[in-house]
Design goal:
about 350 residues; alpha/beta; Rossmann fold; seven-stranded parallel beta sheet; two-stranded parallel sheet; 10 helices; 13 strands; about 35% helix; about 15% strand; globular
Length: about 350
């Protein structure tokens, strides 16, 4: 029996990892603080501690592999890796494509340089400007402590049921409501998303095989566009939604921003053409992971399953990104008015 330790495991990707491991009949142990979804997985062994200081529950034990889903601060990641150095045969660290140095070219692969520089080298504060460098330093720490036994996974945007970020979930919610939907930017803008369940099943299989090295993990396998994504969602949900494509310049003029985890009006998955630094954000090369067995379920399934899960959430919960229906209606009205004015001006010029 394969003994798997998961650092985290009760939120989003972590819970999908637990479900994937249990489905493969592995013996799973969770290490958590006991604060997030404490009643989840009552049948699974749970060790309680805090990687910020109390790792005593991890001592005196042995596992075949560990998957670290909750490592953000290099010092704490290093502490966990040192604690587990002699207790695990294999260490999987969940990193991010945010580790890559900007600008991000289209087709970026694992050989692209990573950014470890921090304006304040001592900072442990996680914010958009520090998240990538902190993750990059954490990668380096794990690999230095367990050389030849480390698997680094750099996912793109992880989506699907239980996603707390709302970066994808906004779209099944909005499409399902129907009516005039503000579709942002260029119809042919590239988009990449990976269902957390697909990522989890592949990661557990990679841990089983003791795979090592670094892998980008973004999907799907064939390129899709923003239009593909929204039309697929509309069809999958049987939604009576009319897509109104609104161009980048208008949205920027109206103060709409791209989603960087900041508290501002944003539209998830929208990347304006002028964002040259992030041009490759949704055009990551994941061929290495695909060759190693990463597979993707149909995007329509992810839309349907996410919509079903959204139906179980508290309806009064505030969205972390996206537009309110009222704000969307105001923007669409202003857009149509501007289009009519432009059309009239062009007609007069003739």
């Amino acid at each position: 029996m394969f003994r798997l330790l998961i650092l985290g495991g009760t939120q989003f990707l972590g819970r999908h990892l637990v479900e994937a491991a249990v489905a493969r009949h592995h013996q799973v142990t969770l290490f958590t603080r006991g604060k997030t979804n404490p009643a989840l997985f009552p049948q699974i062994e749970r060790l309680v501690g805090d990687r910020a200081g109390d790792l005593r529950a991890l001592t005196g034990r042995r596992w075949d592999a560990v998957i670290d889903t909750s490592g953000y601060v290099p010092r704490l990641v290093r502490h966990a890796a040192l604690t587990l150095e002699g207790a695990v045969g294999h260490y999987t660290f969940v990193s991010s494509i945010s580790v890559y140095s900007a600008p991000l070219p289209r087709g970026l692969d694992e050989a692209h340089p990573i950014a470890t520089r921090l304006d304040d080298p001592s900072t442990e504060e996680i914010q958009p400007s520090t998240y990538g460098p902190l993750k990059a330093r954490a990668e380096t720490a794990v690999d230095a402590i367990l050389p030849g036994r480390t698997l680094i996974i750099r996912p793109g945007l992880i989506v699907g049921p239980h996603d707390p970020s709302d970066r994808f979930s906004y779209w099944p919610w909005r499409l399902a409501r129907g009516g005039a939907v503000l579709a942002p930017g260029r119809q042919r803008a590239p988009i990449q998303v990976i269902d957390g369940r697909d990522l989890a099943h592949w990661m557990v299989a990679m841990a089983e095989s003791q795979a090592t090295g670094t892998y980008n993990a973004a999907g799907p396998a064939a390129p899709i566009t923003m239009a593909d994504l929204l039309k697929t969602g509309r069809s999958a949900l049987g939604a009576d939604a009319d897509l109104h494509w609104v161009d980048d310049a208008f949205l920027l003029q109206q103060g709409i921003g791209i989603d960087r985890g900041m508290p501002a009006e944003t539209l998830p998955l929208w990347l304006p053409a002028r964002e040259k630094v992030l041009a490759g954000l949704f055009a990551i090369d994941s061929r290495r992971a695909i060759a190693a067995g990463l597979k993707f379920r149909p995007l329509a399934d992810t839309f349907r399953d996410t919509a079903d899960w959204l139906g179980t959430r508290d309806p009064t919960r505030s969205w972390r990104t996206g537009l309110s229906l009222e704000r969307e209606a105001v923007l669409l009205a202003a857009w149509r008015q501007g289009q009519l004015a432009d059309h009239s001006a062009a007609k007069r010029a003739r």
